[in-house]
Amino acid sequence: MLSAVIHLVRGLWVGWVMAREGALAFVDAAALPPHLRVFLRLGRKLERRGLGPTARLPAALTRLGPSYVKFGQFLATRPDIVGVAAARDLERLQDRVPPFPQAIAVATVEEALGRPITAVFLSFSAPVAAASIAQVHQARMREPNGSERTIAVKVMRPGVRERFARDIQAMRFMARVVEILRPEAERLRPREVVETLARSVAMEMDLRLEAAALSEFAENIKGDTDFRVPQPIWELTGRDVLASEWIDGIRLNDRPAIVEAGHDVAALGRTVIQSFLRHAIRDGFFHADMHPGNLFVDPMGRLAAVDFGIMGRLGIKERRFLAEILLGFILRDYRRVAEVHFEAGYVPAHHSVDDFAQAIRAIGEPIHQRRADEISMAKVLTLLFDVTALFDMSTRTELVMLQKTMVVVEGVARSLDPRLDMWTTAEPVVRTWLARNLGPIGRVEQAGRAALTLADVLADAPDLSQRLKRVLIRLDESAPREGARLERRARAETRRALWSTLGLWAIAGAVLLLALR
Known about the structure:
Layout: H1 2-20, H2 34-44, H3 56-64, H4 66-75, H5 79-82, H6 84-90, H7 102-113, H8 117-120, E1 123-130, E2 134-142, E3 148-156, H9 160-181, H10 190-204, H11 207-220, E4 227-228, E5 241-245, E6 250-251, H12 255-260, H13 265-283, E7 285-287, E8 295-297, E9 303-305, E10 311-313, H14 316-331, H15 334-343, H16 353-367, H17 377-390, H18 397-416, H19 422-438, H20 440-516
Parallel strand pairs: 4-9
Antiparallel strand pairs: 1-2, 2-3, 3-5, 6-8, 7-10, 8-9
Helix pairs in contact: 1-3, 1-9, 3-4, 9-10, 13-18, 13-19, 14-15, 14-19, 15-16, 16-17, 17-18, 19-20
């Protein structure tokens, strides 16, 4: 009870800040039931005067603190929940906060590594970047062969875990309140969204897991000659500290410097798109925070990515789904795009494939009337997800995260080459994967995996039958006792309800007598 009151107070504080900063302007009153429209009108009256037309949501979330900044960044990947306008506003949210003191960073590193910092590094700089969860320092260390090496050291912000844990509990409470006040919001799964954020943040707060993501990603791309990531240094990595190779390069948002350095910006734009699709479709593991600040071009012209705190995963079914719908739009095979949705189980079977294909044609045909460099692949996927909502397709968190990451990646690629043809660039990656996985070799591998699964089931059959037999025996033995227990509980509940009712009538009678006197 006390925790509910605390969460309610925190929820009211969040609502107050959102109202004061004008963030409620993004709420569509027409989509709300009458009782919530009243609260919306009251909230709009609390807005501060002189607010600008943009950046209202980022201002509110920044004022609420690092947990809500992270939540806003996460919601920027979910336009299906907050709407396209709000998602675009949230894209401006910068996860930049003042760095914490150098002395605390040094103490954290020393505690994590169990040695004085001077025994580990030749130098340890002031923070070069600071965010809500951690900050990054540049350090120099001596290699066993006597040479010196520059590395990046990421250090966890003190007290951040406790604050996030507290705020996540409040978010869980507010998600339950949203479902109670507006039951139709259950389709958007607000509680599942908060739990997804909680898992994501929990993984970000253990830098060993980020190092593991970095290591897995590096293993996936070891054959790629145009993309690289920094190697983690495991002996200098712990829960609160991550050491990795230092990346020398030019940020992708500095196009003049890239041109001046002699790099081919058109080729680099193609690499951005093709690399992302390879990671998503070929590997099923992609960098979900590929904004320009996390991407560099190194002196050899290779694309390099940093900050692997937010990653996305796709199963084989989702990868096939993505590849086939992209190829379907490229070939204008809208019926195949519709069939893929039904085969994946994303659209309920009671809907018509032909009707769904007709709706998809309404998305695909207009794009073929425009120049290739005017067609946004991410926009097509956004429209596709809007249409699928009409056919009762449930929200697929992993696909929405992929789509939103594609929006960012496409923006980065087009900032390098405004005339980039996304579809021609994507086609080789998509065709190669489909040919490999749906061709003869892929069919043989699928059959092999199915045979192994069947063999495992057959091998476990005797043990499973024995377990089932024991469970049935227990159920048979416990059924009479369980029935008696339930009957006793029902009688107790009935007595409790009777006495509660009599108590309430007694109180009412006493109040009435006092009033009469």
